[in-house]
Amino acid sequence: MPKRIVFFFIGFVILASLAYYGFNRWKGSREKVDLWTLVPDDAALVLETQNHQELMEHLQETELWQSFSLLPFAQRFEEDMAYLDSISPGSQRLTRFLNEKNILTSLHVTGKTEVAFVFYVPVSSVGEHRFLRTLSENINKSDIFEEDSRDYQGMLLTDIKNNRNGRSFTYFTYHNNIILSESPVLVEEIVRRITRGKPKSIAAEFQNTNYLNQPEVYANVFVNYRALPDLLGLFLEEKLMPEVRYLSTLCQNGMLELKLERNKIFLNGFSTPELLKNSLHREMEPQKPQPLGVRAYLPNRTAMLLHFGLQEIERLRQQQATNKSVYAATLDSLAQTLSDEAALAYMESSSVSQSPEKVAYAHMANPALAQRLLDKLSAQVAGAKKQKPFVEKYGSYTIQLVNVPDLPQQLLGRVFQGFEQSYVVQVDDYLLIAEEMTTLRQLLDDISDENVWGKSVAQKAFLEETLQEANLSLFLNTVNAWYLLNRYTTDEDRENLLQNATLIKRFSQVSLQFSIVEGRYYTSLVIRRPDQSKATGQQAFEEEKSIVFDKRLDTRPFPVQNAVDRSREVVVQDSANVLINVTASGQRGWVDSVGTSLRSGIKQIEYGPDKKLRFLFITANRIHAVNNQGQSLENFPFNVPDSLSLQHLAVFDYENNGNYRLLVDDNMGNLYMYNMQGAAVQGWQPRRMDYRLAAEPQHLRVGGRDVILVLLENGYVYALNREGETYPGFPINLKSPLTSGAVAKVGADLKRTEVTAVTRYGSVITFNLQGRVLNREQLLRPSKRAMFELVPESSNGRSFIIVRQEQGKVAVFDQDLKEVFEKRYVTSASKIVQYFHFGGDHKVYAITETGPQKTYLYNAEGSLIGNRTLENNQPVTIYYNETANNYTLYLTSGKQLKKMQFRVGE
Q1: What percent of the chain has pLDDT over 70?
Q2: CA neighbours closer than 13 Å in the CB half-sphere of residue 475
Q3: Using an 8 Å Cβ cutoff, are 479 and 486 in contact?
Q4: Are residues 284 and 135 in the same domain?
């Protein structure tokens, strides 16, 4: 009897203990856990979603998922989900299981080249527990997966490997939550975080912020700015990282709402300032955000812009070392005249190897005082170096060389470093600084032509969706910045960049802005696909006008601008040698009976007291200039001896002040130069060359010197000054015939100015204006019949392509000598190849076969536009209309001039 009592007592104790243990386990599992407390502190980003299915549906509706699904990580995720879905029990698939849950996803940098995600998923009901148990059993039974369990600090970790693709993931359950990641190291770190007891939420400062309660918000996004440089460092070269780390010290963390609209991604919320010593926030201490006034001076070819909006711009230079030079006081005084805005703009480049041009902008509170200080600074620096101050007039502007090392950095802080020398110009209330004078000249031309953000329809539409006032803004145009991204991306990630080029270029407009509001930064990230509503049609041609003339048209439609309103027009010449102007509306304008055929294109200059556009061109032995009525200007035409046969016309304006020089060459290689009054210029009557010219002479302005570049068909290159004298080091012999011109990248002086030419046999040669060959590279030449030429971009010649023609095949190469495409044509005769580049990916290649009279137009990827050819045997003229996002094409066919519209689809 006593033994039986003892037995029952022991059994009762065991049963009670099991019941107590089971109750505590049940109670513990029922305790609600704040998933944010489980996220490791090194997470760079954390995404909190509430309705998985709704998010996916909206992504598909807005076409965003179609774009993102191209990314490798998205494809891997979909593949893994599909494998798990294939063994999911019953009709309750994973998508249904994940729906209507508050799920966290954290992103971590796990190595020098890798990132990993952790998913935190609640399990809310008995049915969901049953689903997961059955799914686990199916994994054990499946030959697709291998499962292995292990104990880690009291937690049961399960490792699952996919035998089909070799990928694996680790998970464990904690208080009715599943924590899962492809990185077992991260899972183990979370376990250690739990076992240490009462972990603090990484987003504790935002515990009362939940944007998911608001309509049309699809996620909360937590940003850890302290970990952001490590994430960006995976993609960017190390030389950029010091500035990235510095800019990241504006804030320590932030919580943003994610909104999705058609072709747009919005992230808006608040970020907490970084209070550590020497942080960017401590340096700026901003009081009031400022508008983007500099938009009126930013060219449309801007690739990236960093903009500071501060009342006290001088605060940006606080951390600099004390300048002990003789002009330090003048620098300090000049810095004090700057206010409200400072910006650093990077321009679009044409190749990966080309260093992007950059321009520093600063708003001046007192432009007159700033100019006096600039003059004083320039004189002090020149005096210290025993040189004369350099000043150049460019139209109504004055460009100065202020040879202070890293002048923008000394005025505006460390972000503006990297200016080896500084050319400056004042435009209204803004000071513009560039390393090269040619950069400022081109920029002033863009401002004059209104090719700026403030006038761009696409850019204005984008800016309307960004913050109108901000303290720090970063703007990126991924299309314009494509070569910039390639240049500064790590070698490991450049392949991924190229693979995802379509997606990156599609969402081309990006802005990230911070605006101080009551001690916190209102933060806005906009990623936008430009409005394509006006280009929804397929690649197609639509004939807008067809004008029939009395005589056959013998020339291409020459592109010109209307002399009054600057609208885009053309000029043609018929078989009776009459020049006919055709307006933008398709009406006939002025006419000029020249009496003989043209030998050049139509040049246009601003000339006369009214500064209206005039038209210049040459015939075999005359130089003509007419007004917008087709009437010859005073002193024109200029007659040259009848024995001459003119080949090219070049027009120079050394100081951009209307004092033009006209340079022509004949078929013997003689050069003749005249002013606009018809007087011959000394040294050019004639300037004899040894051979005929391969292309039109080029004028370059280099560090205050004028250089006239002359390339001869026999491969010799001359660099001449204004008087026709040869610069030291020239002529140089490229040792191979030339059939095309050259493209120059103008530097600060003759040594740093680089010229690229392509010989007939495919040698790509780069030399400087001291006559030194810097690089020579041979393109593949499949046979002796393969011939090469350099084809500059049609409108401004800043970029170029290289063309190889061989027995009916045409291959096009970009400036990095990479093949863009190769096509085969009907005949073996030489083709007319043209290259049009209107910025970014707005590129058109036109190839014309003169025998069959067919013109082929190709887009940036080398695809045939409209899947059709056009009847034509002359070069074509193409304009791009940014507002309508389409192209206007002019071509001639017999007696007809055709004006057509076409679009280029993605």
Answers
A1: 88
A2: 27
A3: no
A4: no
